[in-house]
Amino acid sequence: MNVRLLSLLFSFIISLFINAEDKLLALDEVSPSKSYDVSRSSEPSQPVEKKSEKRPDRLKFLNGDSISGQFRGITDGYLLWRHPSFSEPVQVVAKDVSSIQLETAQSFGSGPEDCVVSLVSGGRLNGKLTGLSETVLTLDTWYGGELKISRKFVRSIEPGIKPERVIYEGPQDGPDGWMTGNRNTGQALKLMAGKNKNNAEVGGDKQRALAVLGLVRGVGRVKVGAAANQGAWRYANNAFICASSGPILGRKDLDLPERCALHFDLQWTGYFNLGVNIFADQINNEYSGNSYSLRIDQNNVYLYRIQNGSTSNLGNTPSQLSGKKKCEITMFVNKEAKQIAVAVNGRLIRKWDDSRPFAGKGKGLLFTSRNNSAMRLGDIRITEWNGSLPECDSAKLGNGKEDFVIFSNKDSISGKAKRIDGDKLIFTTNFGDVPLPVSNMRTLIFNNQAKPPTPKDEEVQILMAKGGRLNAELLAWGDKTVKVKSPVFGEAVLNQAVFEKLDFNLNQPRKEDDGGLFGP
User: Fold this and answer.
1) Where do the domains of the chain lie, and which CATH numbers do they carry?
2) Is the pLDDT of residue 243 over 80?
3) pLDDT at residue 41, as a whole number
4) What pTM did the predictor assign?
């Protein structure tokens, strides 16, 4: 039994005599506090309805082990973790933790949001732009009131862009609605198991909890061969996996909007080859019906037009994935403009324009394993796309010495963004100050030369609703609110409902999910 497990066991015994929850700060009635820096939070978060069906949170260790339960806060270097197998919260050493997927507090708030703020650190905040001076950007948010952000931390703003409507996000809830089969063997598509029973049944999860805490023998892990022998995609540990050629995974019940973005995380071993069909009217295989088909491997990304079963190649581009083992893929589709674009790890690599009528005639989505390499497909997210594409090379924007504005009609101008007066951005150019209507701006890129900072040991990465992302220190965790401290806006009290995931120990190496790609 290693030191970490001994520490967990000792903490559990101590917790039987001490009510660890008494250590939590009561924040439910705390108003957002002012920072002594330029940043502050000035209004309490609005109450938000919680989801009707509560699911357990999931804590993942740096060594790949994980356990379900409920996160109850952090104090003195320990996470407080409640699990149905134990009468009191267990103290978990924070330095051993990789992440916490938050489910019990998740819900979506209300309030106007018309601006996306991208930070130098890679973070992102959504809200309503209410002010800009030469030193501070003011963002009004439903989850933290008014946040005053130092301009030196801001990379760009996109005014007038609302956060995307989420069409689908999963498969954390289980494989509900997904079908799998095999195109090579003729195995017909059929619905996968209805629920993630390992998370729903306390009895099975108790054995896993005891194993993680070192009290019983481990529950075992699936070998690569087990996935390969199934001939279809399999659901495990909040993701889909396969390790053979021919398995297909799809569904036809997605309400794909006219402009949509499909995002997913992909891990692999060996030389992978994945097919993705979107706006498909048939999902029996990747060649039938009408759709657009993206085919990705470690060297290239290809886009095909599928019309009445006939395939035509629209072109390819380097994927730049050689030597890597995982990536994030985002596919953007504008049905009216007949445009398809692909980003790899947040960087735009290619945009295609189809001169013929839009090929897709359905609402289906299909993933196909095109060779025998093992793959893990997770964090699938489909949103209504706002039309903004990531830049392929930010260094080419402007002259690299001044702020840069891109307008909705794709015109641009370089200069110095001074302030916002009413609905106008006062922008200094060689010809003097020019008032620019904010409503006509697509993007304002600040000429901040600051490099992304290295995260501090006490900082966690907070993944927020609607694509928000922020590095901050957790000061206190209440039932409905969380007090944080960030160099971006100082101290603030945020509505807990905006939190989706917490990543700890950002500078430490970590294993992937239990059993490598294949989970328990």
Assistant:
1) 3-109+457-503 (no CATH), 115-164+396-445 (no CATH), 166-192+233-384 (2.60.120.560)
2) yes
3) 39
4) 0.69
